[in-house]
Amino acid sequence: MRLFIVIILFILWLPIYSENFFTGSKLLEHCDSCVHSVNVSNINACAYCISDTSLIHDAFVERGLIEPKWCIDSEVTLKELTKMTIMFIRENPIGYRQFSTTSVANSFEKNYPCDR
């Protein structure tokens, strides 16, 4: 199922150059500067990756194409999601080599399960 999500994300992001589809280690570079910034904006690569992964998941769930893999409360901020993603990648070294979207999805599954 994770492979399916990555394939769909790749298709949806075709207009974006492949150099923007980076690994977890490259995502960490972008996210560190995002978290330590006073203003977390949606123009940051980290913010795009995290918010788009969540939005695409929610769209698939709403259309009944997949079961929910995670449940993020509406009160959770982008900054918190970013911090949790950074922590997850650092604690799981395989995330350094995975596509950034896979690392984000795995982080969401672990940190925001639907059975809480």
Could you characterize what this model shows?
The chain has one domain (22-111): 10k-s Protein, Hypothetical Protein A, Chain A (Orthogonal Bundle). The protein has helices at residues 2-12, 24-35, 45-62, 78-91, 100-111. It is an all-alpha fold. Residues 14-19 have low confidence and may be disordered. It has five helices and no strands. Helix 2 (24-35) crosses helix 4 (78-91), helix 3 packs across helix 4 and helix 3 (45-62) packs across helix 5. The radius of gyration is 13 Å and the shape is globular.
Fill in the keyword field for this structure.
116 residues; mainly alpha; 10k-s Protein, Hypothetical Protein A, Chain A
Shape: globular
| Number of H- or I-type helical stretches | 5
> DSSP strand (E) fraction?
under 5%
Number of domains: 1
Kindly report the average pLDDT value.
Answer: 78
The succession of helices and strands, N to C, reads HHHHH
CATH class placement: Mainly Alpha
User: How helical, in percent, are the residues?
Assistant: 55-70%
* Spans of at least 5 consecutive residues with low confidence: 14-19
Reported CATH architecture:
Orthogonal Bundle
Oligomeric state of the chains present here: single chain
> Radius of gyration, Cα only, in angstroms?
13 Å
- Examine the coordinates and then state which fold CATH places here, giving the name of the CATH topology: 10k-s Protein, Hypothetical Protein A, Chain A
Strand count, sense and closure of the main sheet? Answer: none
Distance between the termini: 22 Å
Q: Structural class of the secondary elements?
A: mainly alpha
